[in-house]
Amino acid sequence: MKQNVGILDTAIRGVIAVICLAIAAEGVLPRAATIAVLIVGLMLWASSSFGICFIYKALGIDTYPGAGDGLYQNYPRT
Question: How far is CA 70 from CA 21, 52, 65, 78, in A?
Fold first, then answer.
């Protein structure tokens, strides 16, 4: 599958993923909130690790540097 997450997106997702996973590991939130934060953290971690975001793909967004000119490139769905 083609990558669609750029360098800046990867860094931001990685930092937020670490914060979410740390909060989930500490268990300072109620159980339901901890599970939600854990799931969000894991999804962001996977997205930043593999460079693929399914939400970006559904919306036709591609911030990967090889995608085109500039930092942000929005392609219409075909």
Answer: 32, 19, 8, 22
Please check whether residue 76 is in contact with residue 60, taking contact to mean a CB–CB distance below 8 angstroms. yes
Q: Would you place residue 26 in the very low, low, confident or very high pLDDT band (cuts 50, 70, 90)?
A: very high
Identify which has the larger pLDDT, 48 or 73: 48
Instruction: Tokens for 31, please give them.
Output: 């159980």
Residue whose C-alpha is closest to residue 44's, from 19, 65, 14: 14
Q: What is the pLDDT of residue 2?
A: 82
The helix/strand/coil state of 73 is: strand
Cα separation values, 15 from 9, 31, 40, 60, 64, Å: 10, 23, 12, 24, 18
